[in-house]
Design goal:
mainly alpha, 3 helices, two-stranded antiparallel ribbon
């Protein structure tokens, strides 16, 4: 079995911050109906709330930004870690 890709440093800390209940800030967000439908679909697939989806998305964006800053690629890899889809332009 091939080793799985490791999280970049800071990603785990960001995940902890995103799920911390100690300090919360309430946001109001205006989005399109289509984006709301997508949020509902993702929250259902993840067995969570729309807020959970947004929090995880922010953490994922942080990983992307750090990777780009380090000159790394960000994408979807096969089990053997071959990059099959590179995500650009976020």
């Amino acid at each position: 079995m091939e080793p799985r890709a490791k999280l970049m440093p800071g990603a785990e800390a960001a995940r902890v911050i995103a799920s911390s209940d100690k300090t919360r800030v309430r946001l109001s967000l205006d989005i399109s109906r289509e984006l709301n439908d997508l949020l509902e679909k993702l929250s259902s697939e993840l067995d969570g709330s729309k807020s959970d989806v947004l929090r995880k998305g922010i953490v994922l964006m942080e990983v992307f930004v750090k990777a780009r800053r380090q000159g790394k690629k960000f994408g979807v890899a096969e089990e053997n870690q071959t990059l099959v889809t590179e995500i650009v332009g976020l």
